[in-house]
Design goal:
The chain has 207 residues and is of the alpha+beta class. The protein has four helices and eleven strands, in the order ββββαβαβββααβββ.
Amino acid sequence: CLLRVSWVDPESVRVAPDLPHGIRATYRPRTPRLVVTRGGEAIALLASDGMVLPPGFDETLLARFLAVPLESGAILPEPGMRVSDSLHQEALAAVEEALWVRDTLKVPIVRIARRFDFPRSASGVPPALSFVCEDGREICWGWSVASERRVDAPDEVRISLERKADRLRKIVKAHPQLDGLSRVIVDRAQVSLRDLDGAWVEPPPGL
């Protein structure tokens, strides 16, 4: 049954009579969104609905997707099952935001990770995220827009998507591809920039 095939989007399955041959079934594959990595190596591909897709994808294809790490102690389900790890769920919720940063602002991010200061011990709250470049430079982005609307948190850590995007546009205009920066914090009341030595950098005018 097509509905039980893990790489088939069950919402897309359509069956219709095709006389005299029998029946005709049409379907679409699930849409891959994120690569799960362990120690920098790709170990799984997640669909947009959180389903772990079957193995066998070409490495060239995997390189097209942003990555999210499998943290120590986290469990990756078998193919055909949905992820329950909060980091993976929140990364899937934020992947379109991350792709906008990469493709529109031309910041060469390669993975989505837990924000550097967000504890794993925080239960019942989606982890705040960072968008990270290959060399470790990061944008502290916070929660996805979906989570930001429902998280019970102080206003100073509830920065809207529009405000974060506007801040980052101004920063990237002054520092293309985050040139000279190691960390950019746009998800707090006060924007903060750090240079490659960790020293404070004055934000662009208006921030």
